[in-house]
Amino acid sequence: AFDVLIVGGGPAGAAAAIYAARKGIRTGIAAERFGGQVLDTLAIENFISVTETDGPKLAMALEQHVKAYDVDVMNGQRVVELVPGELTEVKLANGASLRGRTVILTTGARWREMNVPGEAEYRNKGVAYCPHCDGPLFKGKRVAVIGGGNSGVEAAIDLAGVVAHVTLIEFDTKLRADAVLQDKLRSLPNVDVILNALSTEVHGDGSKVNGLSYRDRATDELKRLDLEGIFVQIGLLPNTDWLKGTVALSPRGEIEIDARGQTSVPGVFAAGDCTTVPYKQIIIATGAGATAALGAFDHLIRSSAT
Ligand code: FAD
């Protein structure tokens, strides 16, 4: 069995592996796709001390750093079940199973997509999901934010300070964000809000976004906005479906953790975008991965079996 068995190979999993291996304990990492969301990212300009990098480069650096230690890296492995016990069992889709005295869950999250024509084609070419990450790339440009919940309205307020103009598009007849955010949004001179609208297509010139079509649900009229960027803010889905019924999840499906990364199951820790941690970012996930590994190590030195 492993002393520390990590599920997920994004920034959180990589950091947890390095911190665990540096304690000289048996460390394994099973990941469906080593690198995680970082692999889908172009420019990264907010990983502190690295002025600029891109996703594939950072993913490679994470892997090289992990492989500099004695870590059993099992890439291409999807985990389907967690069975808590004296040794926690982790079952793989291929039928095999792994065991750990402690387990760290770092399965990340995925952005909910609009699922309209052009969205996938122009991803990272104008279609974006993270205002903290990509907002500055649209300085002085026109953007739309899709979604009028708290994250959409926060994104619109944030972007209004950076870009030339923001159009917020909400499917419902009213915004769902907190009143204080709605008031702030309405006070901004460069923001328009369109309610009762369904986004139908992302347009582009072949290399980048130049427009967005939506259907006015009241009149059924199809309209088009000319713009350079679209921020989709209709939800971040944690990859935790397989954990339902074993570890405590928040109403949004995020794994509930304490300050040391401990979940509701003793010996099972979690870190990164799959957890209740506020703000989902690479630097935050790496920090959380380190915390969870140190939490797991603390748990090991306090448990009787050596
Ligand atoms: P993830 O990176 O999501 O990694 C999850 C890991 O778990 C993967 O290895 C995955 O394959 C694995 N996994 C999932 N389910 C299973 C399973 N059942 N079995 C086995 N393995 C599983 N953040 C920034 O700080 N700066 C940026 O510029 C930035 N830009 C972004 C751009 C895009 C397009 C996207 C999508 C995200 C961006 N982010 C950015 C956010 C950042 O990528 C995430 O916050 C970060 O990757 C979270 O790390 P994580 O390790 O928690 O999860």
Tell me the number of strands. 19
What is the structural class?
Answer: alpha/beta
Largest sheet: 7 strands, mixed
Unreliable stretches (pLDDT < 50, length at least 5) are none
End-to-end separation: 12 Å
Helicity level: 10-25%
H/E element sequence: EHEEEHEEEEEEHEHEHEEEEEEEH
Features of this protein?
Alkyl hydroperoxide reductase subunit F; alpha/beta; flavin adenine dinucleotide binding; 306 residues; five-stranded parallel β-sheet; seven-stranded mixed β-sheet; binds flavin-adenine dinucleotide; 6 helices; 22% helix
Overview of the structural elements:
This is Alkyl hydroperoxide reductase subunit F. Keywords: Disulfide bond, FAD, Flavoprotein, NAD, NADP, Oxidoreductase, Redox-active center. It comes from Arenimonas maotaiensis. Belongs to the class-II pyridine nucleotide-disulfide oxidoreductase family. FAD binds at residues 3-18, 263-273. The protein has 306 residues and is α/β, with parallel strands linked by helices. It is built from six helices and 19 strands. It has helices spanning 11-21, 55-67, 131-134, 150-160, 179-186, 282-302, and strands at 2-7, 27-31, 43-44, 53-54, 71-75, 79-83, 88-92, 97-105, 109-111, 127-128, 142-146, 165-169, 191-194, 197-204, 209-216, 222-226, 229-232, 236-238, 268-270. The strands form five sheets. Strands 1, 2, 5, 6, 7, 8 and 19 form a seven-stranded mixed beta sheet that branches. A five-stranded parallel beta sheet has the order 10-17-11-12-13, with helices on one face. Strand 1 (2-7), helix 1 and strand 2 form a beta-alpha-beta unit. The protein is elongated and about 65 Å long. The mean pLDDT is 97. Flavin-adenine dinucleotide is lined by residues 7-13, 30-34, 36-38, 40-41, 44, 46, 78-79, 106-109, 111, 129-130, 133, 239, 242, 272-273, 280-283, 285.
